[in-house]
Amino acid sequence: MGKRMQLAIFAAMFALGLTGYYLFMPAAAPAVTGESAKTPEAEIKTVQISGIIAEKSKTELVGESTVILAGKVKDILPSKWSNPNFERGQNISNVIQTDVIVKVGKVFKGKPYSTKEIAVRIDKGKVDNVEWKSEGFPDFSLNEDVVLFLREDDSDNARQDERYYVLTGMKQGKFTKEVGEGFSNGKDKITAATLPLEISEELEKYKKLPRLADPKIYKP
């Protein structure tokens, strides 16, 4: 066999082997870019608060509230820790809280600290990868029409240097608008038109209730 024939056969075998190598070799892994190299989002840690809520009658809601008003939810501020520095000590706790900004409409009882808008603080929300859920507090949504039964915060987490209210009876203090003119908190129903008269009647009933030793609960 001549040298030319040997070279031709060798070249053909080399080309065939190279083709088979590329056909059957595993595909190379794609290059890692800055976008794909991002670490996965941190896992959400949920804190679920459950428990029995002391049921309040309409008489108690009216009597224990310093302010009762109708309004519309204007904004929901970013949630924050009640104790951001994680201080330790007696009667010091740390919960995630959210301030709901409500545009004030008609005021049925008391004098709110602002006639334009007020903040309502609830113990629920999300900070970073920690979500705080509580069965005792309601949810709010933007532009929601509500009637709120409010009082000053006298809890261990109260901030005397901030202006806000908390709901009387927790979720029982929020009445959400239903079809028509009615509002409901899931147990009781009210109407804005008859609420002033109801408040007067309930206040008279409240005065006749037995006084309790805890001033935080009974407020004449």
Written description of the protein model:
- With 220 residues, the protein is of the alpha+beta class.
- The protein has a single domain (45-207), classed as OB fold (Dihydrolipoamide Acetyltransferase, E2P), CATH 2.40.50.
- It has 3 helices and 12 strands; from the N terminus they run αβαβββββββββββα.
- Strands 2, 3, 4, 5, 8, 9, 10, 11 and 12 form a 9-stranded antiparallel sheet that branches. A 3-stranded mixed sheet has the order 1-7-6, with no helix packed on it.
- A hairpin with a 4-residue loop joins strand 10 and strand 11.
- It is globular and about 50 Å long.
- The chain starts with a helix and ends in a 13-residue tail after the last helix.
- Mean pLDDT is 81; it is low at 1-39.
Question: What's the architecture, going by CATH?
Answer: Beta Barrel
Q: What's the helix-strand series?
A: HEHEEEEEEEEEEEH
State the major sheet.
Answer: 9 strands, antiparallel
Domains counted in the coordinates: how many? 1
What would CATH call the class?
Answer: Mainly Beta
Low-confidence stretches: 1-39
Helix percent reads 10-25%
Under CATH, the topology can be stated as: OB fold (Dihydrolipoamide Acetyltransferase, E2P)
How many beta-strand elements?
A: 12
Multimeric status of the protein: single chain
